[in-house]
Structures are given as structure tokens and as C-alpha cells.
Write a structure and sequence with these properties.
The protein is an alpha+beta fold. It contains eleven helices and seven strands. The strands form two sheets. A five-stranded mixed beta sheet has the order 2-4-5-7-6, with helices on one face. Strands 1-3 form a two-stranded antiparallel ribbon. α1 packs parallel to α3 and α9 runs antiparallel to α11. It is elongated and about 105 Å long.
């Protein structure tokens, strides 16, 4: 953005300088030596320093120079020599009003107002001093229209440019979120897959064919689940390549939760943790299936991480006050009361080791919160240290 502004400033200064040289020649031919000298002074003390500041990347100083040059130049030349019939040189630097591209908000509007106020004030004061009265002509309206036209055009193109950069910034943020989601969701399944394959190597050394067969089946199932996860994430990232928008459709939410539980079993099995899904009934619900899958999966993975060996995780669903509630309950280490606010905090990343020294990124629950809130839902956490935690996803 700053580079774009700097390039725009170069265009402004170069354009003004070209016109200054043309008018300097015209003034010399017409023997308007004061105006010709003023053109030379403006070239030497504005254009040249501006180029030097630009070369040295002093962009803010350059902006101040160009902005103040118009006011100073108009005032000085109008006082030194006023031509009631020919005032083109005096309003020519009004082209520099394009520097409103370089300012935002009230600063932009203030700078714009200074240009016409300065120009018309000096013009009418000198006119009254010379003629004894102020003679409003159609030319004055043309001057005012010039200021307004430049302002409107510049403001329009600036708004368009800013909109483009906002979309670009949002697209980059979305891309970063996608990378975080993909890397986080793939790490745990791959870790489990590597662990099972390592055990299989030991079974091969012992010629334990029964265990080799069973571990091969687990590896095949794990690979299939990881492929499905990768495909889902890639499909989701493709559909959300510009911004993260929700795709609300009626889906079998019971079936989706069951699939997520089956997938998470891959990670739970090495710790002998049982995942029990208790659906009271089969439910159809309006939601974004991919976002909801990712959110539920992250919460269950978190429960596995902080659950002890030979324990269980209970997943249930129910409708309460016309809202769908997906509840994930574990009986693990629980969370200290003063730490709970940091779990979903946007300003910090909180991560701790699991019951068997598993290390996480601290992003899983944050991602879940973002994806559920994008569906106008919420996640409620209740936990007691040493007794476990309960995460409730509420979807309207």
C-alpha cells in the first residue's frame, strides 16, 4: 500500500513538473517574467526536493512537501502578481489535490478544503484590493467545479483501491487460516499412523502374523481416513479460496458426528480410550457440514489429548430451545478456572502437554470457535480440575 502511494506521488510530481516547464516557456515568450521565475522556483524548491525525498524513501516528508507547496505557492504568486484575466498557473498546482490518495478520514477532507479556501480567499481579497469590489464570474464556478471534480474522481478511485487492498488482506488472512487448519488437523492422525507402523515393524521382527494383519488393517483404515480428511479440507479450501463463507445446507448431523467419532478412534486407540457416541435420535440440521466436522473433530482430539489411558469420551446430541447441542464430555485432567478464558482468547495461544506428553499447537479450539461462530453458533466450556471437561457446541 505504501509503495502504491509512493508511485502515485511520483506521477503527481512528474505531471506538475511537466506543466510547469510548459508554462515557464509560455511566460517567457509573453514576457511574464515574475510568473516564469516563480515556475523555476517551484521546480527547484518543490519538484527536485520531492524527487530526492522519494529516492531516499522519505515518503511522509515528501507528502508534507507536496501538500504544503500548493498553499505557499498560490499565496506567494498571487501577492506578487495577480492577473485577473489569466490565472491558470495559480490553479494548476491544484492537480496536487490528488495527494488526498495519501491521506485517510478527516485528514483527507481537511486537506481538500484548504486548497479551494486558500485559492478563493486570496483571489477575492486581491480582486477587492485592485477593483474595490468582488466580481463573481462564471470562471469562478469553473474553478470550483475543477476542485470538486478532482476530489470526487480521486475519492472514487481511492475507495476502489482501498476496497481492493481490503479484499487482498482478507484473502491472505483466509489463506493463513486454511494452512493452520490443514496442518493442525493432519498432524494428529499422521502421528497415530506413524506409531502403529512402528509397532508393525516390531511384529515383523517377532513373526507375529496375527498382529501384523491387524495392524495392517489399522494402517489401511487410518490411511483411508486421512485421505478423506485431506480431500474434505482441500475441497473446503478450494470453495473458500477468496473468503471464508459458510455454506448452510440441510445435512444428517447424526451421521456426520458418527463419522467424526470413527475417525477420532484412530487417535484414541493407542491410549485405549473409548469414544461413545450416544445419539438420542437421528437428526437433520441446517449447518455447514465441513466447518462443523472440523470443529467437532478438534474438540474430540483435544479430549483425547487430556484424557488418561483406559478412560472414555462421551459424545451426544440433542435439541434444546430449537438449538442443536453437540456435547463432548471427557473425564480427564480438567482445566484450571483462571486458564479457561485463555483457551479461546484471540490475543494469545495457550497450549499444554497432554496426559502422555502430547504437544499441541493451541489452535484447534480457536479454529473450532471461529468456525462455529461463523454459523452464528457458540461453544460453551465447563470444566473442573481433576474431573474432566465438557464442551457444548450450540448451532441455531
Amino acid at each position: 500500500m505504501e509503495l502504491r502511494k509512493a508511485k502515485l506521488l511520483n506521477v503527481i510530481v512528474s505531471s506538475i513538473t511537466a506543466f510547469l516547464i510548459i508554462f515557464m516557456i509560455i511566460n517567457l515568450v509573453e514576457k511574464n517574467y515574475v510568473l516564469a521565475i516563480s515556475d523555476v522556483i517551484l521546480f527547484l524548491f518543490v519538484s527536485v526536493p520531492s524527487w530526492i525525498l522519494q529516492y531516499k524513501k522519505k515518503y511522509k516528508a515528501n507528502t508534507i512537501l507536496i501538500t504544503s507547496a500548493f498553499l505557499f505557492y498560490t499565496t506567494l504568486i498571487t501577492i506578487l502578481q495577480y492577473d485577473v484575466n489569466r490565472q491558470t498557473e495559480h490553479i494548476l498546482p491544484a492537480i496536487s489535490i490528488m495527494v488526498i490518495f495519501l491521506f485517510d478520514g478527516w485528514k483527507k477532507n481537511l486537506i481538500f478544503l484548504l486548497f479551494p479556501i486558500s485559492f478563493f480567499t486570496i483571489r477575492f481579497v486581491i480582486m477587492y484590493s485592485d477593483l474595490g469590489y468582488i466580481d463573481l464570474k462564471s470562471l469562478h464556478l469553473m474553478y470550483l467545479l475543477e476542485f470538486l471534480t478532482v476530489y470526487v474522481i480521486a475519492s472514487y478511485f481511492k475507495a476502489d483501491m482501498m476496497n481492493f487492498y481490503r479484499k487482498l488482506q482478507l484473502a491472505n488472512q483466509t489463506k493463513d487460516k486454511l494452512f493452520r487448519i490443514i496442518s493442525h488437523d493432519l498432524k494428529n492422525p499422521f502421528s497415530s499412523l506413524l506409531g502403529i507402523s512402528e509397532l508393525q515393524l516390531k511384529f515383523v521382527e517377532r513373526n507375529d502374523f496375527d498382529k501384523i494383519k491387524s495392524s495392517a488393517e489399522i494402517i489401511h483404515g487410518s490411511a483411508t481416513k486421512i485421505y478423506d480428511l485431506t480431500q474434505s479440507l482441500l475441497d473446503w479450501s478450494l470453495s473458500q479460496s477468496e473468503t471464508i463463507n459458510i455454506d448452510i445446507q440441510k445435512v444428517n448431523i447424526t451421521s456426520i458426528i458418527a463419522q467424526v467419532c470413527d475417525f477420532c478412534e484412530i487417535t484414541a486407540r493407542p491410549k485405549d480410550i473409548r469414544i461413545r457416541f450416544i445419539p438420542k435420535q437421528e437428526l437433520q440440521w441446517q449447518c455447514d457440514s465441513i466447518m462443523t466436522q472440523i470443529a467437532v473433530r478438534n474438540i474430540i482430539m483435544n479430549a483425547i489429548k487430556f484424557s488418561p489411558r483406559n478412560s472414555e469420551i462421551i459424545v451426544s446430541q440433542e435439541i434444546v430451545d430449537n438449538n442443536l447441542q453437540i456435547i463432548v464430555q471427557d473425564f480427564g485432567v480438567g482445566i484450571e478456572r483462571d486458564i479457561i478464558p485463555n483457551i479461546f482468547s484471540e490475543n494469545s495461544i495457550y497450549s499444554s502437554y497432554g496426559t502422555e506428553k502430547e504437544k499441541g499447537t493451541g489452535l484447534g479450539l480457536k479454529i473450532s470457535k471461529e468456525l462455529i461462530e461463523k454459523q452464528s453458533g457458540q461453544i460453551i466450556l465447563s470444566s473442573e480440575l481433576g474431573k474432566g471437561s465438557e464442551f457444548t457446541i450450540i448451532l441455531p
